[in-house]
Automatic annotation (TrEMBL):
<protein>
    <submittedName>
        <fullName>Signal peptidase I</fullName>
    </submittedName>
</protein>
<dbReference type="InterPro" id="IPR014710">
    <property type="entry name" value="RmlC-like_jellyroll"/>
</dbReference>
<dbReference type="InterPro" id="IPR011051">
    <property type="entry name" value="RmlC_Cupin_sf"/>
</dbReference>
Length: 120
């Protein structure tokens, strides 16, 4: 197999980096290394919530609901994702938090991939 190809399972691989599958934090030479984008497979039990709001975000983000019922909190607005495929996009500088109303699986894409940010 070529070093430019990686085949895996999101549920299995996500456990290694707190859900993150692709981004600057993967080793150089790994096809999952990217300075342009980060991708996360998030599996959340009911009641799971972000410990504190993300403030001063430097990236744009897309969050897509795969299954469950998931709420994204944005300044002055809550967005409920309740049907598979529901999604929300927020831009640079938009603070956010989240809460899993039911067991939920979400796919998050952030760009660019910014070194120095904690994987989480």
């Amino acid at each position: 197999m070529s070093d430019a190809v990686y085949v895996g399972n999101a549920g299995v691989d996500a456990a290694a980096d707190r859900g993150w599958l692709l981004g600057h934090f993967k080793p150089l030479g790994d096809p999952r290394h990217s300075d342009d984008v980060e991708i996360k497979w998030g599996v959340h039990p009911p009641g799971d919530e972000r410990g504190e709001w993300v403030k001063g975000e430097e990236r744009t983000a897309l969050l897509v609901l795969i299954s469950g019922r998931f709420r994204v909190e944005l300044p002055g607005r809550g967005v409920l994702l309740s049907e598979p495929g529901d999604y929300v996009v927020w831009g640079k500088g938009v603070d956010h938090s989240w809460y899993a109303e039911e067991a939920s699986t979400v796919l998050t894409v952030r760009w660019p991939s910014v070194p120095g940010y904690r994987i989480g």
